[in-house]
Amino acid sequence: MKNLSFLFTLLLSGISFAQSYNTMWIPDTLSGPNFTLNIRDTFAQIVPTGNQTITGGVNGKFWGPTLLMNKGDIVHMTVNNHLNDSTTLHWHGMHLPAVMDGGPHQIIPPGTTWQPYWEVKNQASTLWYHPHMHEMSQEQVTKGIGGFIIVRDAEEAALNLPRKYGVDDIPVMITDRDINAQHQFAIVPYGDSILANMTLRAQYNVPAQVVRFRLLNGAIETSYNLGFSDNRSFYVIGTDGGLLDAPVLVNGTTPRYILSAGERIEILVDLSGQAGSTVFLKAFNQSLANFIPGSESFPNGPFASFLGHTNYNILKLNIGNQTANPVSSIPTALVSNQFPLEQDAALTRTITISDSTGVTSVPILGPNAFILGHQLFNMNVINHSIPLDQTEVWELKSTSGFGHPFHIHDVEFKILTINGVAPSAQQAGWKDVILVERMKTVRFIAKFSDYADATHPFMYHCHIALHEDEGMMGQFVVTQPVGINEISLSSDFTIFPNPTREKIFVQLGDVPSEIYYATVTNASGKIVMMLPKPELSSGIDVSHLKKGTYFLELMEQKTKAKTTKKFIIE
Ligand code: C2O
Ligand code: CU
Ligand code: CU
């Protein structure tokens, strides 16, 4: 439908909205430690007039609330899947147990509630959440399901940084969509329309002082070569996993930062003394090197985009008056990061990135998919097993003809070298996504601490949702050596009160057992609640379930043996 969308783009840019901008939507915030997230299919007025767009959202019409968490909090999530399809919700960048991670193995069937929880161990950072259902990530992310997570901690709080959400501390999720003549999103890798927080032709009022932007590339495929219309300089203060040691000035004749799918940066822009003027945040993708996603200009076909190999505005900033107590200076130092040291690495693990051309074992898409480790993703194959607490160097070795943003779950890493050269200062912080350009080799170091689980793996993959869906993904488990004298524990239990109305409690049998997973199934066999590592002492809240007969299944931690008991809600 490229022709139609082309006509429509002409209409949009040429006639109806030539002079008009739309105020950028700012997601609501939710403060923890308990978060309830309702994922649903819905619709929204994405194009300001005419048809609404079928979208997906969390608690709203698209995207989702910004979750505010503090380091050290134990956060409890209640995720209700109201979609007609199964989904997952992944906490991108969060260091947590694999069974809570929301990757492709933590599937939430339609109508089911998933209740993961964890202690926030990440430092202050800008993370995000999004669906990760295998072979459906592109579709579900295209609908708009996702949201920001802002982690705060004492070190960040002690700094003189802008921190007024939506005023001088502004989250901007940048993405693009192909919007057809009926105003519907096409599920394609590259869009023709740029959106800032799901707002077309976005503008925002900002105060004439130091303003912090938390920029997230939420695109399916495109990398954005970010800069400002007047080529002003800016400071990078944070990368994917937290603040840098010190702000890094990006200056020169064309100050730019390439942000690839899944990546975040926090920047400071000094707007002091500029009240009354405007400036645009732009993507300068005309100067992106060839084979970086978003650099291509295909006139037609599945990768055609009117944004390919061109420059375009993302967000118009209208600079207005200062707020009370403005931040007026850029800090000289931020935090002192302790990165793992190369001398502590137990090994170097090589992950190849290649085109699958010529690999006959690729079953789904034929020869054009991209692959990691010379194999297509298989849900049932664990590609790597990593002993708990091991420090490793990962060497990402690309022989692919195209650039791929590589992402790993569980850890934040530090880039050691890109083609043998140390990373630039603005990439020398904690990262969880790195664009591996064609034929290049990236080495990073990470420590796999805290969470071992032989059953649920963590993922690594290309963050281009299309490539991930096509199988450009692998998985690893973090393992803890088990003593030989472990006995099989009994997970026999009784439920009380039974019947119940609100909550059920579980009395475990004589031998103390640790429960790995609990599920509640209704009388027709449908899973209605999923509770990884349930905290049974506080009971299981079943008050949202209809009256009837249910089954509680407990899976024991060590043996993974399952026991099921019936209970009644009256
Ligand atoms: Cu943002 Cu595995 O993903
Ligand atoms: Cu992730
Ligand atoms: Cu890729």
**β-strand amount:** 35-45%
Determine the structural class based on helices, strands and strand pairing.
mainly beta
- Rg, please? 24 Å
Please name the fourth-level CATH homologous superfamily of the largest domain: Cupredoxins -  blue copper proteins
CATH class of the largest domain: Mainly Beta
Q: What is the averaged pLDDT score?
A: 92
DSSP summary, beta strand count: 42
The hetero molecules present are: CU-O-CU linkage, copper (II) ion
Q: Can you characterise this structure?
A:
With 570 residues, the chain is mostly beta strands. It has 3 domains: 4-320, Sandwich (Immunoglobulin-like), CATH 2.60.40.420; 342-479, Immunoglobulin-like; 493-569, Immunoglobulin-like, CATH 2.60.40. The protein has 4 helices and 42 strands. Strands 3, 4, 6, 8, 9, 38, 39, 41 and 42 form a 9-stranded mixed β-sheet that branches. Strands 12, 13, 14, 15, 17, 19, 20 and 22 form an 8-stranded mixed β-sheet that branches. Strands 1-16-24-23-18-21 form a 6-stranded mixed β-sheet, with no helix packed on it. It is globular, with a radius of gyration of 24 Å. The structure holds CU-O-CU linkage and copper (II) ion (2 copies). One copper (II) ion binds at residues 90, 92, 407, 409.
What's the short story on this structure?
This protein is mostly beta strands.
